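To the wet lab folks,

You asked to see what we're planning to order before we commit. Fair enough. Below is the target structure as tokens, and below that is the sequence we designed to fit it. If anything looks off to you, flag it before the synthesis order goes out.
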């Protein structure tokens, strides 16, 4: 079945919508990378503090001010922050998937293509061990 002819104005509108979807996905991918990096930093600090005596002094940045605390005071705050970051990461991944699905539905409804241009993120998307691979994957997909 032949596709109907698209006017120049309609073509511009489609291109604008496509670019908007693409940019939104890129922004979400960037946020996901930032949150994963922050989560990994929290994990590294917790692993470093874990073997230390609880009464040992350490320093923590609070609102841009370096404050002296003990390991006993810092560990619970770091765990709370780390848990919060994981929840944010899960929510961002859901938003990414939803935005990706919306884009695919839009492509099909606009009669652009019926195939997936942006594949599902890798299964390792939520593991920070593969962060470089994931970001490289996303950059390659979006640069094309």
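Sequence we intend to order:
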């Amino acid at each position: 079945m032949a596709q109907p002819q698209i006017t120049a104005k309609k073509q511009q509108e489609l291109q604008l919508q496509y670019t908007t979807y693409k940019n939104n996905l890129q922004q979400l991918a960037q946020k996901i990378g930032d949150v994963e990096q922050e989560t990994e930093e929290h994990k590294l600090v917790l692993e470093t503090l874990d073997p230390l005596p609880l009464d040992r002094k350490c320093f923590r940045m609070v609102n841009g001010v370096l404050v002296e605390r003990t390991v006993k005071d810092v560990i619970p705050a770091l765990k709370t922050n780390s848990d919060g970051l994981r929840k944010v990461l899960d929510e961002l991944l859901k938003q990414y998937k939803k935005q990706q699905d919306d884009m695919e539905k839009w492509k099909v409804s606009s009669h652009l293509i019926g195939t997936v241009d942006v594949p599902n993120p890798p299964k390792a998307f939520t593991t920070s061990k593969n962060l470089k691979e994931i970001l490289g994957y996303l950059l390659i997909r979006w640069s094309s």
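Structural context that might help your review: The first strand starts at residue 57 and ends at 62. DSSP finds three helices and two strands in the chain.

Thanks,
Computational group
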